[in-house]
Amino acid sequence: MKKIFLALLLFKLSFSYCQEKTSSYKDAFHLINIWLEAQKDYEAIPSIMGVVVEDQQVIWHGAFGKSNLTENRVSDPNTICSICSISKTFTAVAIMKLVDEGKVGLDDKVKDILTFYNIDQKFPEGGAVTVRSILSHSSGLPRDTGHSYWSGPDFPFPKKKELKTKLSKFETMFPVGTDVKYSNLGYAILGLIIEEVSGLTYKEYVEANIFKPLGMSNSHVEMKMSEYGTKHAIGYTATNRNGKRKQAGFYQTRAMQPAAGISTTIMDIAKYASWIFRSMGADKAEILKPSSLIKLLSVQSEIKNGNNEQAFGFQIYTDSDGNKWAMHGGICPGFVSYLKMDVSNKTAYAILANANGVRALRYVNSIIDILKKAKKTKSSDKLSVDLSLYSGFYNLNPWNSEYYISEWDNGLVLLYLPSGSLKYSMYFYSHGKEDTFYLLDENGEVTGEELKFFRNKKGAISKVKNDGNYHYRLQG
Prior knowledge:
This protein is an alpha+beta fold. The strands form three sheets. The chain has a nine-stranded antiparallel sheet, sandwiched between helices. α2 runs antiparallel to α12 and α3 packs parallel to α7. It is elongated, with a radius of gyration of 25 Å.
């Protein structure tokens, strides 16, 4: 009975925390929804989906647009998309699980595991290519296989037999461990290692040992033609000169599954992120030993790519506040994705879109910026004025498109649309008197710049005077 009571208490506390967190971010989430809906229209993105996870709770998710334009099918949080190169993080998890089971070692030589491995080692002084060096992209292997599988309209990804027979045509590009160069080929080889030591196909191993235990029921290796256009979104090209997108060709990644072959949803990504967060400090293994997960997320090379360092599968960096971040993006024909996790604070952000030419990381960073701003907001007593009366879209033609004014804590926020970055497109105002508000500076101090609203004969807000110009409220 005590156990049941404790379980109910923990659930109640967790649910209350989630409600409180969602409530404190209410204005921020509303603005994110408005912004993504607008960006989807202005950039002609068929659909864009996102999620924010705090430890074990999804505190926001959204889906905007269509997963299938021809059939007018609306996307939702369970719409499946290809996540492309984020697949590599799952491959890294699979390898580490096999390490935990003693079936492979990080410092095992690839040539000792795969009898058909015969890539020319041009720099023997650096030692042999190992599992560890491939995981950390420091093996010296070429980026791709030489097949033209990024070329449309058919995207001819190689079959496993083709890849194996072509290995002898490759050679390493630098001594092992002396540089970090991203390699799709390397992760395809890791997939072959998984198959060799487990006795299962890559697809079977990942789906049984990662997706199933985590309840990722809408995730699978390789796109299914039977779901394409229904449960799985259709992929679209970048915009052409006429501003339109075309449907990208259906493809299967075949031998490149471990590098780019996984399809999933934002809600399943949330489950993946929550597993990472709870496993870091766990007492026992859940898929991986906690120590193995920490190793997977640890820097493996002193060589940096800009501010980023390389872990196993993920890139890592530490921000100015000392917080550790792990991330990976993906681009495939018709799809883009990005997963970014604040490992220190156990918060994850992800974006999926079914079109190329979409800057997924920009969207992730903007969501991070607005939630960071919301955290700094200091609530005070509620105002007597109804702030919702001022909310809406206002016309900026001919000079610009529009902006949206919304409630923000006990004031207003003005967001220019479209906007490449929320951080530099939001302006905050506090209430002055009647229908007048005053711009706040970066420190939250009132400036002399006014935002003055005007009402029509029925008493409804009809226009606003901003920086000396009138902007009329848009209907709808």
